[in-house]
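Hey, I'm writing a tutorial for new members on how sequence and structure tokens pair up, and I'd like a real worked example in the thread rather than a made-up one. If someone can provide the structure for the chain below, I'll link this post from the tutorial.
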Amino acid sequence: TSVRLTTTNQTDIYAATAQNGTTVIAITLANETAGAVIVKIDRYDGTTDFNTWRTSVAANETSILSDFPMKLRAGHKIKATAASGNAITVNVDVVLDAAAATGARTG
């Protein structure tokens, strides 16, 4: 999933739909402007936003967040906020968990 942050408002980037789970394996933040931009990544658990990462992306650079696997269930989301609009593109790489990929039910 790839989303351009066109405003400074919090934006939904990825919404998990697989009931048995999705795992976020990496988030890429690309800054296509001549100035550094602060970006905040939140994980929404269906009720509350939790700040997961906050970083400054240097001018004309890309930051890759891959230090974590992040488990999401249906209704969970990844959201992003940039300090400057129309500067950052966010890419989220995910893997469907085995049960979700095969349609199997667990528990």
